[in-house]
Design brief:
heterodimer; A: mainly alpha; Fusion Protein Consisting Of Minor Coat Protein, Glycine Rich Linker, Tola, And A His Tag, Chain: A, Domain 2; B: mainly beta; Rossmann fold; Neuraminidase; 2 domains; 6-stranded mixed beta sheet; 4-stranded antiparallel beta sheet; globular
């Protein structure tokens, strides 16, 4: 297909060359003129140098016939030299032929001139057509140019439009981008603002917390001091209490007459109410041993130990108001 | 500021409430081991005679003291001597540390009768524990009434039955008018008073044993020159010979149900323990050893017998189970342990414990084998538990004369029983009887 196209282009090229080149046209014309001239000249020469009968033999109207005729004529001449008698006879014929020939030639000439005219006309017509064609070509070219210009313009326009579109798009994009950026920036600003506010708040809270902490610590310290004071007092109290518990224990122990016999596993708990001064108000068995004698010995022991030695500090009496004794003998 | 005050107040309240909730707790693990302080105010006498025919208060005091469980306040230490319960000032007794107080009186009633009254007080609770009025038909019964008062007090304070109003049997030996030795089987009050001979003999009397109902005694006599075993109703005087085999007939012991008698016979060789069905008189040989097996005593359940045997070389206590004849040795301490007597609760065995040339009364806890020597005399013998297990009566020697003594089971109180002429030996405490 490619080749075919090439060929077409080649023909077209040839055609174009013929059409477009005036020189080529000129050559053509020249060839035609030369050929015509030769024919004319030869015809003229024959007419002057040779008798007309020779010419009648040539029947061909075309160039090759002419040439053949001329050859024939030349041969006839030679034959004439050699054969003078034959020629004389023939001369009459020739004269008649020549006359016919002359008429035919005149016709031919007329015909040639008509052809010449026709050729000229054709040439003229051709030239006109050529001119016309050239004009058309020119016009075509102009149109082509115009078309190309239009196309160019269109392309340009298109390009321009595209560019514009692109530009618009870009602009839009840019705008969007800008908006995006603006939004982002706004967000960032807001975030920053928020963070800043949060930080501010946090800072405030931290401050408050610190203040509260300080207050708490102060309070704690105060409480701690108070606690330590209390603890110190409590320790003092406790040591007094412990001491008296021991004294009471000893007194009750001294007064507890353990029943004879096996008391293995017996234990008795009594709740004792004391009145200020240490006197035992009452003794109540809260968890008996199951052995009446044992339980009674326990009650008696506490009662016998009354008054129980209490601390002199009456503030401590509350701790001794109710005492619990667990009698749990070893062995 | 108000807040602080409020908080302090709350704290205080919490503390106070908490404190009230959790009372101080005091643990007592030690105590005084000893007798219970008691005061028995001499019983006042209301009657035509210048003084009471019997000092009941003194008998009660002695009884309670002898048990080892009480330490009566000497009369001279008393700050007051009330006899009317309404006139008792407890403070007078509290200051002396007296826990219990007995006041009472004897009144002469018509027909030579007496009325005995007493009240037992808890001094520290200022309350009456018990009290009773007795009508006594005659003077001779006043002693028994006194022991009954002792028993009531004993039981009220110690929650276990007293054994004052009980009897003991023992053998005395003294020369008769002709200068020959005279043996008597005596029955007296537990304090040794009021002995009455239930049997006299010029032949030795040995090994008295009470029937479980306290009505009969079994014993060994050598009447006719041969040992034999009799049972005798102490109230009716009726006696019965239950064993007169060749050789030794000794150491009778009533079974707890009173239907059988364990005894020692040598009719088949060396002395061994037999069991006789008292109804059928059928004998069952219980032990069969080359050594001497003697002095059987029944366990409380009646299913085993503790006895003395020299099967191990020296006399030691063993126990044999009746059903399967399984024998186990009980004593390992000392080179002589014999004459067993089991406490009424079955927890302890008392014995003559010989070490070197000293023979003393010891008790051993059957659960853990712990041995406790109760006496510190030299030739003690024949221990016998009181029916309440609180005391052990035994014989000992004093100035080459056999005397009876009682020791509390904790060994704290030993008291010689008032005596009687001659040597006294082999005391056995009577059961409560029925």
């Amino acid at each position: 297909m490619n080749a075919k196209k090439k060929i077409v282009i080649s023909e077209d090229s040839f055609f174009k060359r013929v059409i477009n080149s005036p020189r080529f046209l000129l050559y053509s014309i020249l060839v035609h003129v030369t050929f015509v001239s030769v024919i004319v000249l030869s015809l003229d020469w024959n007419t002057k140098a040779k008798p007309a009968p020779h010419v009648i033999q040539a029947t061909a109207v075309d160039e090759s016939k002419i040439k053949a005729e001329m050859e024939k004529l030349r041969l006839a001449d030679e034959k004439k030299k050699n054969l003078a008698d034959a020629q004389q006879k023939k001369l009459d014929d020739a004269k008649k032929a020549s006359q016919r020939e002359e008429k035919r030639l005149a016709d031919l000439k007329k015909k040639r001139e008509a052809e010449q005219r026709k050729l000229k006309n054709e040439e003229k017509k051709r030239k006109q057509e050529e001119q016309k064609r050239k004009t058309a070509e020119k016009q075509r070219k102009a149109e082509e140019q115009k078309r190309r210009d239009v196309e160019k313009k269109r392309v340009a326009d298109e390009k321009k439009a595209k560019a514009e579109k692109q530009a618009r798009k870009q602009a839009q994009l840019d705008k969007l981008k800008a908006e995006q950026i603006a939004l982002e920036e706004k967000m960032v600003r807001e975030e920053e603002q928020r963070v800043k506010q949060a930080e501010e708040r946090k800072k405030q809270q931290e401050l408050e917390r610190i203040r509260a902490e300080e207050a708490r610590v102060r309070q704690q310290q105060m409480a701690e001091e108070q606690r330590q004071l209390d603890a110190a007092r409590e320790r003092e109290y406790q040591s007094i209490v412990d001491k008296h518990v021991e004294i009471i224990r000893q007194k009750v122990t001294r007064n507890w007459l353990r029943p004879a016999g096996s008391m293995a596993g017996l234990a008795c708990t009594v709740r004792v109410r004391i009145i200020p001064g240490g006197d035992v108000l009452d003794v109540r068995v809260t968890k008996g041993s199951g052995n009446a004698v044992f339980d009674r010995s326990v009650e008696t022991a506490v009662l016998k130990a009354s008054p129980l030695p209490l601390p002199a500090d009456r503030a401590l009496f509350d701790r001794f108001r109710v005492l619990e004794f667990i009698f749990d003998p070893e062995g | 500021m108000l807040k602080v005050i409020l908080r302090s107040f709350l704290l205080l309240m919490t503390f106070w409430v908490g404190n009230a909730q959790a009372a101080l707790t005091i643990e007592i693990t030690q105590g005084v081991k000893g007798a219970m302080p008691i005061a028995i105010v001499p019983f006042t006498w209301e009657g035509p005679a210048p003084q009471a025919p019997l000092d009941v208060g003194a008998i009660v005091t002695t009884d309670l003291y002898r048990s080892g469980r009480f330490s009566p306040l000497p009369e001279r230490d008393m700050l007051a001597r009330p006899s009317d319960p309404s006139k008792v000032n407890f403070q007078n007794w509290r200051v002396l540390g007296v826990e219990n107080l007995v006041v009472g009186k004897i009144r002469a009633a018509a027909n030579g009768q007496f009325v005995v009254q007493f009240v037992l007080f808890d001094v520290f609770r200022s309350s009456q524990i018990t009290g009773q009025t007795f009508k006594v038909g005659k003077v001779s019964d006043l002693r028994k009434t006194a022991h009954q008062v002792s028993d009531i007090i004993y039981e009220a304070l110690l929650d276990e039955r007293g054994a004052f109003d009980t009897k003991v049997a023992y053998v005395t030996q003294s020369p008769d008018a002709a200068g020959k030795p005279r043996y008597s089987l005596q029955v007296a009050d537990a304090d040794g008073y009021g002995p009455q001979a239930v049997l006299n003999s010029n032949e030795p009397l040995m090994s008295p044993s009470w029937s479980p109902d306290g009505r009969k005694l079994a014993y060994v006599t050598f009447e006719g020159g041969r040992s034999s075993i009799y049972t005798q109703d102490i109230y009716l005087g009726k006696r019965e010979k239950i064993s007169g085999f060749r050789g030794i007939n000794g150491a009778p012991a009533w079974s707890p149900d009173g239907t059988r008698m364990a005894l020692v016979l040598s009719k088949d060789g060396s002395p061994d323990i037999y069991i006789m069905n008292l109804l059928t008189k059928k004998l069952t040989r219980l032990t069969k050893s080359y050594g001497i097996d003697t002095e059987p005593v029944w366990t409380r359940a009646g299913d085993a017998i503790v006895f003395t045997s020299d099967r191990g070389g020296k006399p030691q206590l063993y126990q044999i189970t009746l059903s399967n004849r399984q024998v186990k040795r009980l004593t390992f301490e000392g080179d002589y342990n014999a004459r067993a007597t089991l406490s009424p609760d079955g927890r302890m065995v008392a014995m003559v414990h010989g070490n070197g040339n000293r023979y003393r009364i010891a008790v051993m806890d059957l659960e853990n084998g712990a041995m406790q020597v109760l006496t510190d005399t030299r030739l003690d013998e024949s221990p016998s538990f009181a029916p309440n297990g609180s005391m052990i009566i035994y014989a000992t020697e004093s100035q080459n004369k056999g005397v009876l003594s009682a020791v509390s089971v904790d060994g704290r109180v030993r008291q010689r029983l008032v005596l009687q002429e001659g040597d006294a030996r082999e005391p056995v405490w009577a059961p409560y009887g029925k």
